[in-house]
Design goal:
The chain is an alpha+beta fold. It has 15 helices and 20 strands. Strand 14 and strand 15 form a beta hairpin. The N terminus is likely disordered.
Amino acid sequence: MALNLKANREVRPGQVRARFFAKALAIPFCVLCLLGGTGKQSESPAAASGEELFAAPRVHEIQITLSEEELKSLRSNPRTYVSAAVEVNRIRHEHVGVHLKGSVGSFRPIDDKPSLTLNFAKFGDSKNSSDLTKIHLNNSAEDPSFMNEFIGGELFRSAGMPVPHVSYARVRLNGRDLGLYVLKEGFTEKFLGRYFERTDGNLYDTDRGHDVDQEMKNHAKPAEGTDRRELAQAAEAARVIDPSVRWKALNDSVDVERFLTFMAMEVILGHRDGYSMAKNNFRIYHDPVSNKVVFLPAGMDQLFGKADLPWHPQMAGILARAVVTTPEGEKAYKARFVECLDHFQEAPLRDRIDEVLNILREAVSGREFHSIEAEAQLVKRQIAARISSLREQLREADAGPLQFASGVARLQNWTATDVPRNGRMDRQGLADGVAALHIQAGPETFASWRTEAILASGGYTLRARVLARGIQPLPFGKSSGPGLRISGASRSLPVSYKPGEWTELEFPFEVKSEKQKVEFIAELRASAGEAWFDLATMEVIKNP
């Protein structure tokens, strides 16, 4: 099947709809991937321009030369640009701006293996003749497979979302071999031109604030006090109380069609460090043509790590929460999520990873490749587990909510989790006729009984009776002893109970989504002792 890759890459506003997405992802993945190519290294020494760097997957050679003064500057002020000479595939560029990048997990100093930003247009006396503007070299410290950013970018792009291209590079700094890097295209004017009719809109990132109601950095107009009215309008729309009015206000200020795909893809990929679930790693572009903000994915070096991440998680970003807490947004999000997942297939993803491995094999040592290949195999297994979990979650979500009688629903089908070392978990019948879930602690116990149910939106209380004896607290933490909670929530204080006597436990919580799977937990945290949870009293109460 032929595919016009250039047309697919240059998606314009208004084209990103469910119809486009379905057609795009129905194409075999290895054909769809926008980096294209056969996986063989080009024999040409070229690839000096921005287009050539990302035209086909390969490992580029990049050499950076810094003076001792510039090295000293990066040691003391790593985020401040210095001037360097940079060779890209043996083509030399003078006066290239270089600074270090990376957050807590990935940042490395200049004398280690630093992540770097190269800005070929930073200094006015630059002698560059190519169209290179800005690229990023990521050390992949948090992704030893070197696959997540590459696969994540291709999946977002196949869904019609604007996302920078990704390739690879072998980097040397003053002759020192730094090893393999993930090479990323910057959020440049040329990048914006592939997706938007105009490129003179404001481009925001998370250098300062991390949401539309905060002071985000504007790269288009970096001076303080510049107009950020489009962010203020989006934030105002998110704060509208009436859901129907909010939905209209959101559609007036946010490209909701793209945003629905953006949220769905972040959740499918398990991008827990993105906007939707963490208010991190994203950009926002204000499209002057539509006068709406568009969210752009970024920082995808940690994907697929939690297979059972909920398909409808608690959203952290205020716009994500604002969308899914309207009836229209809730329905549209699920429809878009199902559509995305239907085309998220394991086999083509597995094949694509193998293609990339064949490219990397020729550019790294045997020992390096062995490590990368092992981690890439883990990514394949994570992808398979993620797909399986999401499909199972959607099947469960299609089931009806937990049924209540007079405002009370009994919880059943409890499963033992994290059985303690030198302890045990079982079901017991006590002398007083009580059937109970039992936990006997070992020296370091974080054990729990768990079950799940679907709940409609509203306020609830998880309730049960517990009998505890001989409990010794852990030497750390604030919540030793028996307790109740739901997954994703914490017990703020230890439970007050009388040893050897039945004690009523309660844990209030709220469900904000129209229909959500909730995991219920009856747990014991202790270094000694045991606890029994009365099965007949383990129930959920619908609050008035």
